[in-house]
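# step 3/5: fold
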Amino acid sequence: MKVIDFFESGRQAHWLGEIAKCDWGAGVFLHELLSKGTLFDAVGEGAKVLLLTDGDALVSFCTYAQKDDIQPTDLTPWMGFVYTFPRYRGRRCVGYLFAEIERLAKQAHVENVYISTDHVGLYEKYGCEYISQMKDMDGHASRVYVKRIE
Protein backbone atom coordinates (compact mmCIF):
# COMPACT_ATOMS: atom_id res chain seq x y z
CA MET A 1 0.00 0.00 0.00
CA LYS A 2 1.12 3.51 -0.79
CA VAL A 3 -0.02 7.05 0.12
CA ILE A 4 -0.25 9.46 -2.81
CA ASP A 5 -1.44 13.03 -3.25
CA PHE A 6 -4.58 13.29 -5.40
CA PHE A 7 -3.43 16.50 -7.08
CA GLU A 8 0.06 15.18 -7.84
CA SER A 9 -1.06 11.73 -9.00
CA GLY A 10 -1.52 12.59 -12.67
CA ARG A 11 -4.59 10.32 -12.53
CA GLN A 12 -7.20 12.58 -10.98
CA ALA A 13 -10.03 11.18 -13.14
CA HIS A 14 -9.28 7.62 -12.00
CA TRP A 15 -9.04 8.54 -8.31
CA LEU A 16 -12.14 10.72 -8.53
CA GLY A 17 -13.97 7.65 -9.83
CA GLU A 18 -12.68 5.65 -6.88
CA ILE A 19 -13.79 8.32 -4.39
CA ALA A 20 -17.23 8.23 -6.07
CA LYS A 21 -17.63 4.63 -4.87
CA CYS A 22 -17.78 5.90 -1.28
CA ASP A 23 -21.27 5.69 0.23
CA TRP A 24 -20.54 8.02 3.19
CA GLY A 25 -22.11 11.49 3.01
CA ALA A 26 -18.87 13.39 3.65
CA GLY A 27 -17.10 11.30 1.01
CA VAL A 28 -19.84 12.15 -1.47
CA PHE A 29 -19.37 15.83 -0.54
CA LEU A 30 -15.58 15.54 -1.06
CA HIS A 31 -16.23 14.05 -4.51
CA GLU A 32 -18.53 16.97 -5.29
CA LEU A 33 -15.95 19.55 -4.14
CA LEU A 34 -13.22 17.91 -6.23
CA SER A 35 -15.49 17.55 -9.28
CA LYS A 36 -16.53 21.19 -9.17
CA GLY A 37 -13.04 22.45 -8.36
CA THR A 38 -14.25 24.09 -5.14
CA LEU A 39 -12.27 22.12 -2.54
CA PHE A 40 -9.89 25.02 -1.80
CA ASP A 41 -12.85 27.38 -1.33
CA ALA A 42 -14.23 25.02 1.30
CA VAL A 43 -11.11 23.97 3.21
CA GLY A 44 -8.42 26.47 2.27
CA GLU A 45 -5.71 26.94 -0.32
CA GLY A 46 -3.00 24.33 -0.41
CA ALA A 47 -5.20 21.54 0.95
CA LYS A 48 -4.05 18.03 0.21
CA VAL A 49 -6.20 15.02 -0.55
CA LEU A 50 -4.22 11.98 0.55
CA LEU A 51 -5.07 8.59 -0.92
CA LEU A 52 -4.00 5.23 0.46
CA THR A 53 -3.84 3.00 -2.58
CA ASP A 54 -3.40 -0.68 -3.29
CA GLY A 55 -2.46 -0.72 -6.97
CA ASP A 56 -5.41 0.90 -8.75
CA ALA A 57 -7.75 0.41 -5.80
CA LEU A 58 -8.50 3.16 -3.30
CA VAL A 59 -8.21 1.85 0.26
CA SER A 60 -8.62 4.99 2.36
CA PHE A 61 -8.51 8.76 2.00
CA CYS A 62 -8.41 12.02 3.95
CA THR A 63 -7.70 15.69 3.59
CA TYR A 64 -5.01 17.77 5.27
CA ALA A 65 -6.28 21.34 5.25
CA GLN A 66 -6.57 24.69 7.01
CA LYS A 67 -10.30 24.16 7.71
CA ASP A 68 -12.79 21.37 8.24
CA ASP A 69 -16.41 21.26 9.42
CA ILE A 70 -15.75 23.12 12.70
CA GLN A 71 -16.03 26.77 11.67
CA PRO A 72 -15.28 29.38 12.69
CA THR A 73 -12.29 28.37 14.80
CA ASP A 74 -8.68 29.31 15.28
CA LEU A 75 -7.72 25.63 15.36
CA THR A 76 -5.71 24.59 12.30
CA PRO A 77 -4.72 22.45 10.41
CA TRP A 78 -7.27 19.64 10.17
CA MET A 79 -7.29 16.03 9.07
CA GLY A 80 -10.73 15.67 7.54
CA PHE A 81 -12.90 13.51 5.29
CA VAL A 82 -11.27 10.39 6.80
CA TYR A 83 -12.70 7.25 5.22
CA THR A 84 -11.65 3.62 4.76
CA PHE A 85 -13.56 1.37 2.39
CA PRO A 86 -15.35 -1.46 4.24
CA ARG A 87 -13.28 -4.34 2.85
CA TYR A 88 -10.09 -2.74 4.27
CA ARG A 89 -11.39 -1.86 7.72
CA GLY A 90 -9.77 -3.37 10.79
CA ARG A 91 -6.29 -3.26 9.22
CA ARG A 92 -5.26 0.10 10.72
CA CYS A 93 -5.09 1.67 7.25
CA VAL A 94 -5.63 5.16 8.68
CA GLY A 95 -2.19 4.77 10.26
CA TYR A 96 -0.59 5.17 6.83
CA LEU A 97 -2.48 8.44 6.33
CA PHE A 98 -1.53 9.64 9.82
CA ALA A 99 2.13 8.93 9.09
CA GLU A 100 1.97 11.10 5.97
CA ILE A 101 0.13 13.88 7.80
CA GLU A 102 2.71 13.79 10.58
CA ARG A 103 5.47 14.06 7.97
CA LEU A 104 3.77 17.05 6.32
CA ALA A 105 3.09 18.71 9.68
CA LYS A 106 6.71 18.31 10.81
CA GLN A 107 7.90 19.74 7.50
CA ALA A 108 5.65 22.78 8.08
CA HIS A 109 6.67 23.06 11.78
CA VAL A 110 3.07 22.37 12.87
CA GLU A 111 2.66 21.22 16.48
CA ASN A 112 -0.98 20.05 16.45
CA VAL A 113 -3.37 18.58 13.89
CA TYR A 114 -7.10 18.50 14.68
CA ILE A 115 -9.83 16.01 13.82
CA SER A 116 -13.60 16.43 14.04
CA THR A 117 -15.57 13.21 14.36
CA ASP A 118 -18.45 11.39 15.98
CA HIS A 119 -16.31 8.27 16.48
CA VAL A 120 -15.22 7.24 19.96
CA GLY A 121 -12.24 4.94 20.34
CA LEU A 122 -10.94 5.15 16.76
CA TYR A 123 -8.53 8.06 16.79
CA GLU A 124 -7.22 7.26 20.26
CA LYS A 125 -5.56 4.21 18.64
CA TYR A 126 -3.40 6.62 16.68
CA GLY A 127 -2.32 8.75 19.63
CA CYS A 128 -5.02 11.41 19.38
CA GLU A 129 -6.44 13.09 22.47
CA TYR A 130 -10.03 14.20 22.88
CA ILE A 131 -10.06 17.92 23.67
CA SER A 132 -13.68 19.09 23.50
CA GLN A 133 -17.12 18.95 21.96
CA MET A 134 -17.74 21.67 19.37
CA LYS A 135 -20.50 22.47 16.90
CA ASP A 136 -19.98 21.70 13.23
CA MET A 137 -21.23 23.91 10.38
CA ASP A 138 -24.65 22.27 10.58
CA GLY A 139 -24.90 22.99 14.32
CA HIS A 140 -24.40 19.35 15.36
CA ALA A 141 -22.13 18.37 18.22
CA SER A 142 -18.81 16.92 17.11
CA ARG A 143 -15.92 15.47 19.08
CA VAL A 144 -12.66 17.32 18.45
CA TYR A 145 -9.35 15.53 18.85
CA VAL A 146 -5.77 16.73 18.65
CA LYS A 147 -2.81 14.79 17.29
CA ARG A 148 0.30 16.27 18.82
CA ILE A 149 3.20 16.25 16.39
CA GLU A 150 6.54 15.41 17.96
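# step 4/5: annotate
Residues 14 and 56 are 8 Å apart (CA to CA).
# step 5/5: archive (pending)
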